[in-house]
Every structure is written in C-alpha cells, then in structure tokens.
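Re-run with default settings, no changes from the original entry. Doing this only to confirm the output is reproducible before filing.
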Amino acid sequence: MGEIIIEAKDLVKTYQNGKGRLVVLDNINIQIRENSIISIIGESGAGKSTLLNVLSSLDVFDKGELNIEGSNIKNFSEKQLCSIRNSSIGFIFQFHHLLPDFNVRENILMPAWINKDYGKDKKVDELLKNFGLEKISHKYPNEISGGEKQRAAILRSIINDPKVIFADEPSGNLDEKNSMKLIDLFESINRNLGTSIVLTTHNPRIANMGSDKYELKSKALFKR
C-alpha cells in the first residue's frame, strides 16, 4: 500500500443547534493513501459533504486530529491551509461551479493562475486532448452539456497536480451514460497520474469503483 497522505483520528464535528450542539461526525477514523480510490456512501443528510469538507481542510473540526502529509493541521493558520489546498488537494463538487465569463480552457487553468503559475499551457492542452474536450475548449459553460461541464471541472481539479481529489456526489446531475464516462475518467486519472480520489455517491456502480469502500451511518464511518 502507498504512503498515507491524509489521516483522521477520532474526528468530531458539531454545529450549533439552538442552545446546544448537534453532533454530525463522531470519532471518524480514516486513512487516505497514495494511489487509492475511496468511495463513501450514506443517506442524504448523513454528513457526507461535511466529512469531505473536514478531511480536505475546508471546514474545521471540534475534536480529534487531522494530519495532511504528516503535519497536524489543528493549529495551522488560514494561509498555511490555503497553501496545502493549492498544492496537494483538488475539489470536484456536484455543481461544477465553472466561471461563466471564462471559456473551458480558462476555467481549467484558473487554479494555476490563482497560484501565479502561468506555465501550464502545454499541460492543459494535453488534458483537453486526452479527455475529449479539445473541440470545446473555446466554448463557455452555457454552451456545453452537463457531462462536458463535469469533465471540465475534473480537469480543473487536477491542473495543479494534487495528491488527492475530493469529489462530492460528482455524478449527482449526470445520466447513466455520463456517469459511466465519469468512472472511466476517475480510473484513468488514478491509474495514469497516481492521484488518490475520495468521493461520495449514491450510485452503486460508482461506489464499487473504490479500492476502499465506506458507509457513513449514525454519525460514524464504517468500512464495507
């Protein structure tokens, strides 16, 4: 097995609920290793999105320990967390969040530009060609299909060569045909780039893609 990239130990996440606190995640333990695909299922409202947000450092946790590349991030500043996200973590959401005023190529390059890395032209052209988006690279989000938008969002997530991609219900707005294309794309990224993928899904076929499979139930995470 590959080295551990992210490790959660006894993570607890709560939200304010009136005068008390609502426990959403209770003593979560999980390891995300190199070259792995982890699928997480669970009913709506089980806390899957919250779990991804916490594991990816987008959201804070109340108790426990979260190590990213060997560093405990509990007391990291927002600047340090942003640096980790930009260098090691990619994000794919159910709603693609492509910027409407930029074309497909520019949307994919946006994370690199945010990092002030303007040398990704060759890489983005290779990605567009390899993943079938070359012909629509000049088009804007309102001119392409839902499946094409999701593929563009996926390529955007890997432009900075992250070690882990977090994908929250990535097939939620796709039909069966495009969901199968999504599986092929994730497997190709994992196989060819060595990128680890952590995804939540309601789709059994996508869930079965994982090398490690979990279920979030009753605030706890269970290996399947």
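Residues 8 and 55 are 7 Å apart (CA to CA). Strands lie at 4-17, 20-33, 37-41, 63-68, 71-72, 89-92, 164-168, 196-200, 212-217, 220-223.
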